[in-house]
Design a protein that fits this description.
Blueprint (H helix, E strand, L loop, with lengths): L20 H15 L3 E3 H8 L3 H14 L2 E4 L2 E4 L4 H11 L1 H16 L2 E8 L2 E8 L14 E3 L5 H6 L4 H13 L20 H14 L2 E4 L6 E9 L6 E10 L5 H29 L12 H12 L5 H10 L9 E2 H8 L3 H14 L2 E4 L2 E4 L8 H4 L4 H16 L2 E7 L12 E8 L14 E3 L4 H8 L7 H6 L2 E4 L6 E9 L5 E10 L5 H26 L9
Antiparallel strand pairs: 1-3, 2-3, 4-5, 4-9, 5-6, 7-8, 8-9, 10-12, 11-12, 13-14, 13-18, 14-15, 16-17, 17-18
Helix pairs in contact: 1-3, 1-11, 2-3, 5-9, 10-11, 11-13, 12-13, 15-18
Length: 546
């Protein structure tokens, strides 16, 4: 081990003269929203960032225009579309796509949580979680940052730390002894964590053993065992796979003795897949055609005026230039992928390098794990009803009728569809004296409802071929006299129908033809918005349907 160098806390690096100040302020707003769990009042953002209220208003208006934030009264709320920034990093990394099936299979086999993590300076950041649902379950999310010394993966990454890395770790421990800079874990108190000298010995044991154990370092009861997954090109640690449990189920010793061999076997399979991917060579480089960003930002600026911060919008788009087969990009490639001028792209990259989101290597740039800190942790647990809720509310306001989301429940045994039910999972009611009185959780016979017919039409034994062909279902008074509803499907990334959206009303308010002419286009537009966010949220996470 290279000897650590204790020292005084260094002054922050000076901001480069070419850094984009509005981009830095926008990143600060996104970070505060992330640490607040995804929602924070505008006045709260003002206090947390130290920015003027007028600046906060302009930044959130710009983020709202980009679809990254929703303004809900006096609150700013992160939206799933923001996950496209973290998706760019995860796609460029490729490890989740190559290894997550192994992690999921191991979690199913052991009935324990399994995670994959990468190193982020002197911390670790999760890139995949396969968790078990229990009363005592893990709350860690993809993108969460943990201090290396309080985790099982940490010492494995620390075996490769440089002298500068150790120096940074000592500085951080001096400046933040309670780990307040890591909101994903409880603060360090007496009896939690371990002395810094113990971590150095812990790293040496991990170097010798080739694995590491966390015996309640994060909080009492939590235990984990970790094994490194090595990059076949360099032999360095690409990521670390961990099995995590609770002392009510297994002791740390039991975890090591009973599960470590199986974890090692899984890691060997992971490394074999990495070698196979390397032998196959890179896929055809996915060149992104120049976007219409300049035209879009220009139009947005013209519409919103000074409330739209054009340099912030352009700067955030730079992160989306990266992705699968685009892990390393030159300045020219970034400019071409985003449609930005080279000078604009260069200033954004300088800003990201200063903030730690981009790392230069020669003439190319790569994203760092810190990109996941931009909204990914709170959004990675978003459910389909949470995605749909604001869109249903907007739909109900536009058409002045109630709007709902439903899923299909399992067949009760008839095999014909007549025994199946739909379950309402989200709803936006309209303010009318007489309206459809249905609450979330309600179950109804699928074949007698418009949403049910849309859902049944996508099943292998579905009888509603006409519904499948026309793309919607209209039901007249089959569930109740005077009730008319029209529904369209909601599809996931694979094109599978996972839910349906409907508008229901009394038959006196609109004819069937008016429903098709007036309501159906609004339904399709709403479903498209929900599907867009569902595709983004579901690229590297599992989106619960309820």
């Amino acid at each position: 081990m290279i000897d650590p160098v204790p020292g005084q806390v260094s002054a922050p690096a000076p901001v480069p003269a070419e850094a984009v100040a509005p981009l830095m302020r926008g990143i600060a707003v996104l970070r505060q929203l992330t640490e607040a769990g995804g929602t924070l009042s505008l006045s709260g953002l003002e206090r947390a960032t130290g920015l003027a209220r007028s600046t906060v208003d302009r930044i959130t208006a710009t983020l709202a225009r980009m679809g990254y934030v929703r303004l809900d009264g006096r609150d700013a709320v992160l939206t799933p579309r923001l996950m496209e920034l973290g998706n760019a990093y995860l796609a460029a990394l490729r490890l989740p796509a190559l290894l997550d099936a192994h992690a999921d299979a191991l979690a199913d086999e052991l009935d324990e949580s399994v995670s994959l993590a990468v190193g982020d300076r002197d911390g670790i950041r999760f890139i995949h979680q396969a968790t078990r649902r229990r009363a005592m379950s893990l709350s860690f999310r993809i993108g969460d940052l943990l201090p290396a010394e309080r985790t099982a993966p940490g010492p494995l990454f620390a075996t490769e730390w440089t002298r500068a890395d150790w120096h940074h770790w000592h500085e951080r421990r001096t400046a933040d002894p309670a780990d307040l800079g890591f909101p994903a874990i409880p603060p360090r108190t007496e009896g939690t964590g371990a002395p810094d000298s113990d971590f150095e010995a812990y790293v040496e044991r991990a170097r010798a053993d080739g694995w590491a154990l966390d015996d309640q370092l994060i909080e009492p009861g939590l235990v984990a065992v970790s094994v490194p997954v090595r990059d076949p090109r360099t032999g360095r640690v690409a990521c670390v796979a961990s099995v995590v449990s609770h002392t009510s189920r297994r002791t740390a010793t039991g975890l090591r003795e009973e599960l470590l061999p199986r974890l090692r076997s899984t890691v060997a399979a992971m490394e074999a897949d990495l070698r196979a991917d390397l032998r196959e060579g890179p896929t055809a480089e996915a060149r992104v055609p120049p976007s219409d960003l300049a035209a879009w930002t220009g139009a947005s600026k013209q519409e919103l005026g000074r409330e739209f911060v054009e340099s912030l919008a352009r700067g955030l788009t730079v992160l989306t230039a990266f992705g699968e087969s685009r892990a390393e990009l030159t300045l020219t490639e970034v400019a071409r992928a985003t449609g930005l001028a080279r000078a604009t792209a260069r200033r954004a990259l300088i800003t990201y390098e200063h903030l730690g989101y981009v790392e230069p290597t020669g003439r190319t740039f790569t994203l760092t794990p810190r990109v996941l800190s931009l909204g990914f942790p709170p959004l990675s647990r978003t459910s389909l009803p949470e995605i749909a809720a604001p869109h249903l509310a907007e739909l109900a306001d536009r058409v002045e009728e109630s709007a709902s989301l439903a899923i299909l429940t399992p067949d009760s045994g008839t095999g014909t569809g007549t025994g199946r039910e739909i379950q309402y999972t989200a709803r936006a009611a309209t303010r009318r004296i007489m309206s459809a009185d249905i609450t979330v959780g309600t179950r109804l016979p699928a074949h007698r409802t418009s949403m049910g017919r849309v859902l049944l039409a996508d099943t292998p034994d579905g009888d509603f071929t006409e519904v499948r062909q026309q793309g919607y279902a209209l039901v007249e008074e089959e569930l109740e006299q005077g009730l008319r509803s029209i529904a369209v499907p909601v599809r996931d990334r694979t094109g599978r129908v996972v839910a349906a959206v409907d508008v229901a009303m009394h038959s006196t308010r609109r004819t069937a033809q008016q429903c098709v002419e007036e309501i159906l286009p609004e339904l399709h537009a709403t479903a498209t918005r929900i599907e867009g966010e569902l595709r983004t949220a579901g690229r590297f996470t599992r989106v619960p349907l309820t």
